[in-house]
Design brief:
This protein is of the alpha/beta class. Helix content is 49%, strand content 16%. The chain is built from eight helices and eight strands, in the order βαβαααβαβαβββαβα. Strand 5 and strand 6 form a beta hairpin.
Length: 212
């Protein structure tokens, strides 16, 4: 089973992919995580990617493609969930050709769907301790009440207007590739509201695994 997983910021896409890894034995392939690891390790690819990032430019697609190719090869082209890739139709076509050469193919494409207002409410309640860097959430993990005033802050990226902008970027980036998969009758939309367990059960149902 080979899965591509889409989802807007704040929907828990990475957590669900990790659930599939830990509970169902999938290899979680996150190109974002892989790229950050290459940068931490100061590999040749990581050094080259850092040059683009520090210049405020997008990392060339070939870098990300190389990471995806290597990760898919390492799991022998079987039982993986792609998180954050492909982002373009060109990447989706390359992925098809790459797997086809190995007599493999993506089995299903899932898109976690959550109303924008729910995502904005969820993300805008995130807080961080500016001294320690510890993260909090006003609903799920409230900060201690005995901290000095001003220590707990809201990141600029977690303000409602910034979240709306991120959602607009996500839609602009992913709509074409999702439509590409929709035309091939591969895209399945999954309700991303509710608890992590509820969403995870829906994902398992879509990929043919009976909920525990």
């Amino acid at each position: 089973m080979r899965v591509v997983l889409f989802g807007p910021p704040g929907v828990g896409k990475g957590s669900q992919a990790q659930f599939l890894s830990e509970r169902e034995g999938f290899t979680h392939i996150s190109t974002g995580i892989l790229l950050r690891r290459e940068m931490r390790n100061s590999s040749e690819l990581g050094k080259n990617a850092r040059v683009y990032i520090e210049a405020g430019k997008l990392v060339p697609g070939i870098f990300v493609r190389n990471l995806a190719e290597d990760a898919i090869s390492k799991c022998n082209y079987k039982k993986f969930v792609l998180d954050g890739y492909p982002r373009t139709i060109e990447q989706a076509k390359w992925l098809y050709d790459f797997l086809d050469q190995k007599e493999a193919a993506i089995d299903t494409v899932l898109s976690l769907v959550v109303p924008d207002e729910v995502i904005i409410d969820r993300l805008s309640k995130r807080r961080v301790n500016k001294v320690t860097g510890e993260n909090y959430h006003l609903d799920f993990k409230p900060p201690p009440e005995d901290l000095e005033p001003g220590v707990i802050i809201q990141r600029k990226d977690d303000k409602p207007e910034a979240i709306k902008h991120r959602l607009e970027i996500y839609q602009a980036e992913t709509s074409p590739v999702q439509n590409y998969y929709r035309k091939q009758h591969m895209l399945q939309e999954v309700d991303g509201t509710g608890t992590f367990e509820e969403v995870f059960d829906r994902i398992r149902t879509e990929i043919g695994i009976s909920p525990a």
